[in-house]
Structures are given as structure tokens and as C-alpha cells.
Write a structure and sequence with these properties.
alpha/beta; Rossmann fold; binds beta-D-fucofuranose
């Protein structure tokens, strides 16, 4: 710990010195240039899109941090399409940017483009969602075929743990809200299929409940929890509502608990539940993930029960890591976000301090 602090301190001095050099020895610029560079760092950033409140907060954080760090940001919105991300990254390579940051919409399909980045000598940072190898350091740093070398750092949450936390909350609270049931039937709205956020939350939720993590539907070993419906709503409010409408039509009287892989889908589902004549937060216990403002409003209003925080304010860490990488300073392979859980017992108190 002491050592880590020292390293951080030394890093900060270097970063400050670099910033001062760029600002002509004065000002409070935070970085933006590296040793031996007489211009701003140029960062290409491939964002997924604007599918949720969380994503908007993440984008705003990245843009604000780039300004604060005096980094020239080339921002590209892929509108949910991996193809657009690949194209954007290829353009960044052609433009010879100094560093590339990207949020992979899904986990797979990155090998070729990341090898192109390696060949061009452009380091990459994976933000928010991960790809294979995000928590491992390669045995041989020069082996291009080892996925552990395909990007330099990953900055984001532990999605599996978020699934664990959601399940823990259900185990501790479902019976308080709907007492006297021998089995709690669960419906699930999954995120974008194949994304690390969807896969991690799917597995973590089942693991903690004691349900087979390799299948969508199933019953816990103790027989108390049963996932009876599970479908993707692609992380959007509109699709969350649409899928929940179908769930209400087929099983409206059977659902006790809803897990939504993000708050936007939970908020869409709340509407569908109300339109089907049920009381969200009472007839159906609702848990979302993200802890965006919309979820706090719903928790305070009583229509949503809990939200597991996932921190989107990753911009400052992305910029700090980029400057370190370009200064050839050591960085963590995975910078894990720290997060909290919220429900109706603490939502009102926390709401005024929420930044997103
Ligand atoms: O939970 C969801 C978003 O990847 C963690 O993507 C992110 C997820 C987030 O659209 O709201």
C-alpha cells in the first residue's frame, strides 16, 4: 500500500511537470503532453452509443476529463454497432493518434483490430466493458497472439460481482416485501447479449442464488428462487418496457421479483407493470443495476426497490491512465471501480449527492 502510494505520488509529480511544460510553466493543466512532446496528447475514443442514462453519464465524464487533462479527444459514437467501432478505431490508426480508448459493445471480435493497433505501436485502453484477458497480465509482453497483450489496461466494474450483489439483496429482502411465499418467481431482463456487462451479471446473479449459471431458467438448490422468464431488453428503456409487456401477458400473476441488468430497463418495465394493473415495488419486487438518478426517483416514489451501483464516472481514470502509459509508467492491468448498493432505506438520503 505504502509503495503504491509512493508510486502514485511520483507519477503525479511527473504528470504535473508535463502539464506545466505544456502550459508554459504555469497554469493548472493536468497532463495532456508527455515527455518529449510539444503538443497535446491525441486520444481516439470509441464509445458504444447512447443507450442508457449510464452511458450518457459515462460519455460526459470522458469528455469533461479530456478537457481537464488538456487531452485532444476524438470521440466517435458507434450507435450500438461493433462494425462502427472497428471502423472508428481503424480511422484512429490512420490518423496516428497517440492512444486509443474504447468500450467494447460485446466481448468478442476484437483480435484483428487490436493487433492492428499493436502493429501501429498505439496503446489501447478498454473502458467499462471488458474483453478476454482483462484481468490478466501476459507472461510474455511481446507475444501478439496472447489476448492478454491486446490492450494495456482495463478500467471498469466487476460485472459478476454486481450480479452477486443483486442476488444477495434479493435473498435478504424479497420475503420482507412479499412475505409468506415458499418460492419466489423471478423474471430477468438481460442486457446486450454477449456484452461483458450482460454475461457477468447473468452469471453472478445465478451463482449467488445457487442456480445453474449456464442456463437462462432454473431453480435454486434450496428451492426458494426460480427464474421463470429471462430475455434481453438490450439495455434500453423502450425494449425493457416491450419485453416486460410480453412477460406480464404470459405470466403477470406469477412474477414476484424482477431483476433488470440496468435501471433503464427497470424503469421501462415499471410502466409495463403499471399498465398491466399491478403495483411495481409491491406486487413485483424490482432490482436494477447502475444507480442512475432515474432509479433514485423511482426508489423514493416506491416503485423500484433497489439498485446496485455501477460507476460510469470513469473519465478521470481513463485520462490519468493514458498519460501514465504514454510516459511509460506502470499501470494496473485492471482498475476496478468501487461501488455501493441502494434501496428504499437509503435512497432519499443519498439522492441529493448523486452526480448522475
Ligand atoms: O450498466 C448499462 C449500459 O456497460 C456497465 O451499459 C455498462 C452498462 C450499463 O448501457 O446501463
Amino acid at each position: 500500500m505504502k509503495l503504491a502510494k509512493k508510486a502514485l505520488f511520483a507519477g503525479l509529480i511527473l504528470v504535473i511537470a508535463a502539464g506545466m511544460a505544456f502550459a508554459g510553466g504555469g497554469g493548472d493543466s493536468k497532463g495532456g503532453v508527455t515527455k518529449g512532446m510539444d503538443r497535446k496528447i491525441v486520444m481516439g475514443y470509441s464509445q458504444i452509443g447512447a443507450e442508457s442514462e449510464w452511458r450518457t453519464a459515462c460519455t460526459n465524464s470522458v469528455k469533461a476529463a479530456a478537457e481537464e487533462w488538456n487531452i485532444d479527444l476524438r470521440f466517435s459514437d458507434a450507435q450500438q454497432q461493433q462494425q462502427n467501432q472497428l471502423q472508428a478505431i481503424r480511422t484512429f490508426i490512420q490518423q496516428k493518434v497517440d492512444i486509443i480508448a474504447f468500450t467494447p459493445v460485446v466481448e468478442t471480435g476484437w483480435e484483428a483490430i487490436l493487433k492492428e493497433c499493436l502493429d501501429a505501436g498505439i496503446p489501447t485502453i478498454c473502458v467499462d466493458r471488458s474483453i478476454e484477458g482483462s484481468d490478466r497480465v501476459a507472461a510474455n509482453p511481446n507475444d501478439k497472439n496472447d489476448p492478454d497483450n491486446w490492450f494495456t489496461a482495463f478500467i471498469g466494474s466487476d460485472m459478476e460481482q454486481e450480479g452477486n450483489r443483486a442476488a444477495k439483496w434479493v435473498i435478504a429482502n424479497a420475503a420482507k416485501i412479499k412475505p409468506g411465499k415458499s418460492v419466489y418467481n423471478i423474471a430477468e431482463l438481460q442486457g446486450t447479449v454477449g456484452s461483458s456487462a450482460q454475461m457477468g451479471r447473468f452469471k453472478g446473479f445465478r451463482d449467488t442464488l445457487g442456480i445453474n449459471p449456464t442456463s437462462a431458467l432454473g431453480t435454486s438448490k434450496d428451492g426458494k428462487f426460480k427464474i421463470i422468464l429471462s430475455q434481453t431488453g438490450d439495455f434500453t428503456r423502450a425494449q425493457g418496457k416491450q419485453v416486460m409487456e410480453a412477460f406480464m401477458k404470459s405470466n403477470g400473476n406469477d412474477i414476484d421479483v424482477l431483476l433488470a441488468h440496468n435501471d433503464d430497463m427497470a424503469i421501462g418495465a415499471i410502466q409495463a407493470i403499471q399498465e398491466a394493473g399491478k403495483v411495481p415495488g409491491k406486487d413485483i419486487v424490482i432490482i436494477g443495476i447502475d444507480a442512475v438518478k432515474g432509479a433514485f426517483e423511482a426508489m423514493v416514489a416506491g416503485t423500484m426497490n433497489a439498485s446496485i451501483e455501477c460507476n460510469p464516472l470513469l473519465g478521470p481514470q481513463v485520462m490519468e491512465t493514458a498519460v501514465k502509459i504514454l510516459n511509460k509508467q506502470p499501470v494496473e492491468k485492471w482498475v476496478v471501480s468501487t461501488e455501493s448498493d441502494y434501496d428504499q432505506t437509503n435512497a432519499a438520503a443519498a439522492y441529493p449527492t448523486r452526480q448522475y
